[in-house]
Structure of DUF5673 domain-containing protein:
Amino acid sequence: MSIIDLRNKKPVKYSEKKRENGKEREKSEGIVWQIPEYEYQPKDVSWYWISLIAAIILFAFAIWQENFLFAIFVAIAFFAVNYLTNRFPPIWEVKMNEKGIFIGLPNNKNKKFYPIESIEGFDIHSEIYEDDKEPEYKKLVLRFQSKMTPYLKINIYSKDESKIKDFLLEFAPQEEISKSLVDSLSELIGF
């Protein structure tokens, strides 16, 4: 609930409020969207067989080297990865306005806040498909001044790319931010 300063303001009737300019309301509210944390990619049986074979090979290597801690790590990692592949992604709510970026689960008061002043640059990455169709999602990559968390990646809908890009250009320049090795590997294995 926000506090409204009514000093030196004339009262507005409800009918005049309804006729407010939609653009002004959008500017003060910012851009709001809900999107999955990641794009769900169903795995086929061969993916599970390959992950099982890789885990068995790594487990056998760990036992052969008498590195039991690594063997335990391989077993835990195998079960964790297979559990996470069957899980549908949570839906996040993202809100951008002049103050900053708010990210959190819908209906949750604990939203993470990133001040707009701390953004040094941004880029929008697109997945490239063999059939040259437009992807449903793109990744917005924000570069911050912080040394602890220099990058933030947020999924956006492809249709909203120009609106988000125009909004961010008011506060930070668009620059080319290359994909990390981890991002490239996760795309390759379909995770």
Q: What stands out?
A: Residues 1-27 have pLDDT under 50 and may be disordered. Residues 45-85 form one domain. The helical segments are 14-18, 22-29, 45-64, 68-85, 161-169, 181-189. DSSP finds six helices and seven strands in the chain.
